[in-house]
Amino acid sequence: MTKTVQKITLSASRDIPFSQLVLSQANVRRVKAGVSIEELAADIARRTLLQSITVRPVRDADGAETGMFEIPAGGRRYRALELLVKQKRLARTAPVPCVVRTDGLAEEDSLAENIQRAPLHPLDQFRAFLALREKGQSEEEIAVAFFVSVAVVKQRLRLTSVSPRLLDVYAEDGMSLDQLMAFSVSHDHERQEQVWEGVQRSYNKEPYQIRRLLTEGSVRAHDKRAQYVGEAYVEAGGEILRDLFQSDDGGWLQDVGLLERLVAEKLERDAEAVRAEGWKWVEAATDFPYGHTYGLRLIAGEQPPLTAVETAAITALKAEAADLEAAHADSDELPEDVDRRLSEIETALAALDERAAVFDPDDIARAGAFVSIDGSGGLRVERGYVRPEDEAPVSEPEPAEPVGDRERTDASSAASAPGQVEPAEEDEGIRPLPDKLTIELTAYRTLALREALGADPAVAYLAVLHALCLKLFYRYGSDSCLEIEPKSVRFGAQAPGLADTALAGRVDERHRAWAVQMPEDSGELWDVLAAFETDSREALFAHCVSLTVNAVRESWNPRPRELAHADRLAEILLLDLATAGWTPTVGSYLGRVTKGRILEAVREARGEASAQIIDHLKKPEMAEKAEDLLAGSGWLPEPLRTPGKPLTPPVGGEADEPVEAVIAESALAAREPAIDQSAAGDETSDRPADVIAIAAE
Q1: How large is the angle between the packed helices 619-630 and 657-671, nearest 10 degrees?
Q2: Which of 575, 574, 553 has the alpha carbon at shortest distance from 562?
Q3: Going by C-beta distance under 8 Å and a sequence separation of 6 or more, which residues neighbour residue 342?
Q4: Which residue, 277, 411, 418, 652, has fewest beta-carbon neighbours within 10 Å?
Q5: Which of 597, 583, 617, 603 is nearest to 655 (CA)?
Q6: Which distant-in-sequence residues (6+ apart) come within 8 Å of 334 by Cβ?
Q7: Are strands 53-59 and 95-100 parallel, antiparallel or unpaired?
Q8: pLDDT tens by residue, 319-337
């Protein structure tokens, strides 16, 4: 016998005038979340009410209906309609579609409506945005329609560019949203699928690893080569990958071959402009090793005199700066526009003061220039360097002929002449001094020079300075009797980008400033140094001595005593590498050591609590977080520390503001998906934007 199935009866629906609706105290939603009432009202005005409101009749004490209806579920929609009524955009008597409930409890209705709703899968949301764009709506129109930013629309559309195969994996929960976002950094579906297969076989499936694999072989947009060519790369059809979900510093340039060609072509054009100046040789390269100009003589060009226009400009700029400073002398802080103008004046004055040097045509014909790219992507031109083979030939003075030889020659000539009588054998004239005697006499003179020089510190100082300058500023400096020679003016091994550091720039600028003061002829050097003021001589001496320092620690060449002396120098000089500009970054340290070293650094600089923030991370992500934690801490690795000088932060110190920022960031990342969800509405809103909101995973 077939069992009869009881049919259900749906609640009746009807249009009820807005004026007969009131809010119910049975609504379980108490916390405001999602889209604002104002945005919901604007959406209703645009598309009308897309979801009916659940209501219950209001009864009096006797149980009779009063004609009013309360709303246990749909309070936000009611408030949005109320706002439209207040704005006189909706009549108070306008009919509102309602579902009238009489059975059960009002609280049950409210709870069920909020709980039973199944949020749309994020992939369906992404595809819905794509469908809207394919039907003719622009990204800006979609953003306006759903009260989100254009950047959010771009993000969600970008996710649909991932390989369909990987989208299917994501739809089946085989991949996280963060992993999917990482794949969107590339448009190459085949490469995306290769990386996914590789990740499946690897222990490391983190999003940063996926991004790294997809961008390996590309060039970061902040690379100096990319900065050098600028927009020419894009104009030539070069592709730049952008990460819409994380800061990418401008993205990644994909066509490395195109970039290298553009760099070479532009560098050659710039080199040709320098060659047109008449230099004997011009070398062009993206980079030159640090110290490449050591051993080459630098020609000192002369700064051209100021023109009348330039002189007038300098006078006017200085007067303007003085007026601005006088007008705000009593202010604690300069107004922003005034501060900006003073900076502009300072830059303009510096440009006028640092005019390009003018070189003698004969010097240009003998010297050359190096053309390269500096650390910020600008053109670097180093002019006026003379190679040893291009130096003018030095005419060696003819050795003085010994008197004895001259007289002997004269006697021989006389003897061979007709009518001359050969002198007697005992009257042979003056013979050259025997070598042994010469050595003995000059040894005595050397000892006398040592005694005299040792008693005159000023001359001894000048003699050492002279010897150092001969070796450091001249290719062949043999004009000194002092056997003093600086041996280390080059680095055997270099850190990447050493030549582009501010520290190298300061040393090179100081060397160049002294080089232009050296005479072209090394024979004139003594007189030039003797004419220097004492302060200048001491500063030059310090610079020359500094170029002989070698504190490089090499495993195959321990040099314990020399390195101990380097430590002693650092201690006396109060050397602080943090102040000098070294900072622990992923590239300079953190990405090149073990996780234990990374945690040790954070522990020393910020304390154990800070180290625990990142101790669970994979090494690449740990290194990035550690860079943020160590920023501004003054922490240094052991090879850079000065003996006797404590670390700037107290060991085991409390976490400070940078640490708190990283903690907050980590906590936020753990709670929310990385995609921007600012436009996602609450679960009771009737807007389509809420229907396609991203679900928190």
Answers
A1: 140
A2: 553
A3: 321, 324, 325, 334
A4: 418
A5: 603
A6: 328, 342
A7: parallel
A8: 999 988 888 888 878 888 8
